[in-house]
Design goal:
The complex is a heterodimer of chains A (about 240) and B (about 775). Chain A is α/β, with parallel strands linked by helices. In chain A, about 25% of the residues lie in helices and about 25% in strands. The longest helix of chain A has 18 residues, at about 180-195. Mean pLDDT of chain B is about 85; it is low at about 400-410. The chains are: A alpha/beta (about 240), B alpha+beta (about 775). The structure holds adenosine-5'-diphosphate and magnesium ion.
Amino acid sequence: MTDTTAKPINSFTTSGLTKVYGEGKAQVHALRHVDLEIPKGEIVVLLGPSGSGKSTLLNIIGGLDRATSGTVHFEDQNLTGMTDAQLTSYRRDNVGFVFQFYNLMPSLTARENVELVTEIASNPMEPDEALALVGLHDRIHHFPAQLSGGEQQRVAIARAVAKQPKVLFCDEPTGALDSLTGRAVLNVLKDVNEKLGATVLIVTHAAATAAMADRVIYFADGNIREVVENKVKLAPEKIEW
Amino acid sequence: MTPLDHKLLRDLWRLKGQAVAIGLVIAVGVLVLVMMTGLVSSLTNTRDAYYQRYRLADVFAPAVRAPQHLVRDLMAIPGVAAAEGRITGGALIDLPEQKLPLQARAISLPDFGAPRLNDIYLTDGRRPDGGHTDEILLLRDFAVINNLHPGDTLSATMNGARRIFRIVGLAQSPEFLYATPPGEMAPDDARFAVIWMGHTALSAAYDMKGAFNEALVSLEPQANLEAVLDGVDRLLDPYGGLGAYGLKDQLSNRFISEEINGLQVMSVAIPPIFLGIAAFLLYIVILRMVQAEREQIGLIKAFGYTNAEVATHYFKMILAIAIGGAVAGCLMGIGAGRAMTGLYQLYFKFPFLLFAIEPASLVTGFAISVLAASAGGVFVLRKVFALTPAVAMHPPAPADYSGSGRVTGWLDTFLDQPSRMVLRRLTRHPGQMSGAVIGIAAGMSLSVAMVSLLASFERTLDLTFNTVDRSDLTVTFTHPMSDKTIYELQRIRGVIEVEPARIVPVILRNRLKNYRGALIGLIEKPRLYRAIDDKTAPILLRKDGIILARALAEILDIRPGEMLRVDVLDSHRPKLTIPVAGLSDSLLGSPVYLELSALNLALGQPNRVSGAFLRIDSVYRDAILSKLKGMHAISSVTRKQDTRAAFEKMMDSSSGAMRYVMVAIAAIITFGIVYNSARIAYAERARDLASLQVMGFTKGEVAFVLLGELGVVTLIALPLGAVLGHYLTFAVSKGFSTDLYQIPAVYSPESYGFAAIAVIGSAVVSGWLVKRDIDTADLVSVLKTRE
Ligand SMILES: Nc1ncnc2c1ncn2[C@@H]1O[C@H](COP(=O)(O)OP(=O)(O)O)[C@@H](O)[C@H]1O
Ligand SMILES: [Mg+2]
């Protein structure tokens, strides 16, 4: 995490980002001309009602999907013009994902699920270390079916952070969890942000989550309605659910 | 080991049932390939080595009587390595316990030492001593079956004179691997003997002092067979040469070569069918697996795994199954090849065996199975490439069944909920369903074809012995007799009907093609022995032309209306030119018919017969046989039931046995396909089915949803499999047919029945196996994880 003046301070910069699904009458404008800046090292919460285009935005800046028009920059790289192979190596080197439904490989143990990522990362931490970070050091040989939902989500986070990513994308990470477990998961995300200096982007429709963010982006109908910078961040365990 | 490899191993373990079923299909394909090619090369090597070690001649040249000194002239023909003149003649053996005299061929051996060509393999006792003219060697299998041993005596008639011989040894010979009675098609060890005895003794018996009546010639490596045959014919012509022929036309060798050819054809034709089906199965399984794992694939891609890395992962799974199957197939193929070769050794009576597995077949088996599997895999991997990582981010979208609403709408009113689910799924996934239908139909068609083949052989026998030959006895005379002999036979008490026949050995020629066979002269409208057309209706014989077996017409490349050259190898050996008047569809042998009086006219010997067909009253059979046994001019009496039995035996051993092996293999494949279809359907729907159970559906209802699908697929596959089987039967029959026997593509209801039962049985067993899994499935773990 060296800091040089030449380095941009933004993790992501988008301009005119548009995504249209389908054709003709069935067309859905999931994103409409989104202009956005996400500074490096912040926790950013993306809030909005279901169907407002949050996941779509996340997928595009995460390099999982392509925009219909507009541009996305990650630091000084333009993601928009990248080939599939370039996008793949962008994800491999820089990005960690956490999904609402955990998406663990059912046929792999907790540690093997983490190894799946450390295997191909350029500067990974030890899988056990990553699992310890999420408090699962005693569950490393369990299969997903033997873990609770919260534990599965923590494995997913361990998996996402184990590569020491520059950015961590979390799409509804607590969506399938109860409040207590949800807070524990958010706590882990905060730790990761502090310890690794990673930019963390959390997508959620639970407004209370906004309290832990450096920056809150309110999303509606495919566009940004408002961006709020929090002067004071709340610890996740203090969040009212 | 990388995490993806862990996943691979665990996935393989989870899919072990299917993996084994597919691996088995591949293994069977490779097994057949390795076994058959091993069999072919082992038998070919053994045969060639046997021929070589016992110096089997390359050219056989019968003559009426040639002086001994002609052997030196034969040796002088360019390309001839060795030559020998021997004496041979027909003989009848009279065994006290046999109602009929048995046919034998007497062959001379040098008085001392081994012959230069056509040596014998002594299995018991010793060679006859030239000084003792009553000493003989007997063909081993004939001796064993008839309980004759060295030291026993044997009564035989040679050239009309009966003598008592002493058996001093038993022998086998590469010349008589198939011991076939003259004029018959199937070998019969019990009814045909070979007697070897000293040259001096035999020349006295056949009045051949200082002469021989069969020349044997071996060739130098580069020799031109046709040129040597011409040279030999020219030399022997003044001495009643009956046409020299090469080893390939020698009867025993022809049978062996046909058998080996048949195996060769099967080894080329059958494995691709199995491997093709295996590839198709792999394709379906991996395709559905990839569809089921699309989110996992998306996820792995989201982490930054490249397309190539993900593809490699799934490709490894394909390879693991293909290689596992191929290895198992190779091992089983070697074992089965060894076992089958052992059987064939007994059947062919090889004194030794050179077992050899073709290394090339192992490589080919491996390569083909991996390629076939990969071909299936490549199509699937295209789908893997096309998946965007974003699919991992979406919760699983419920499959869109809206399109099926219209199709099944009017039916819905009649159906309960589970039935609707079955029906909608079938109409919603026509691709997957037709894949399963085609797979099952392919398995069924294989069963149909293989069982039809059994029925085809039955049909050949039935046609030959009930429709073509309706006699009870066939009598041949030692030489052409006046047709008055027929009346003599007619007068025997119990003889109902007698039909004359004149059979002469001939060489048929059309341009460069030629064929050694026999011309059969029969009355114009025969009742006991008939030519039949393709509708099994009798064909009237013609005075103005030959009726030719269809298979022979193909070999000779001749059509009705064209002229056929007929070199008669009998009487004064006329060379005739006779038009082909029509074709017959006899299935056994390749007979050539001409009306009797026309044949006699062409031969310049009116009113002659060389044999007769008899229909008798079975009450008088023993009396008739003993009467015939006493008649002088009769050289053989053959009961049709014996000939038929010999045929059935031939059909049930060797390549016959192979047909049963093929039926078993077809059944295995059919089961493999059906079981796979059931497993795949279950794997795809485990989660849905668990949800149904959670909602309160009983296990029976849940099983119905799944098995109903399997049932419908099976029912659709049955008629399709029958149609495919119909066409496959034609292809397979054609492959099995030779000029010695034709295998008709018959419609046999029982083969469709068998195949249908195999499919339905497989479906029931597969359904039961899957149902067992549904019953024991752990609901919670199925629901908890998304696969
Ligand atoms: N693959 C797709 N095809 C068509 N429409 C889609 C697809 N994915 C998302 N959408 C539509 O785009 C809009 C935004 O979806 P999404 O980004 O998932 O919303 P959010 O995550 O905010 O709930 C929704 O109206 C949704 O129906
Ligand atoms: Mg979303």
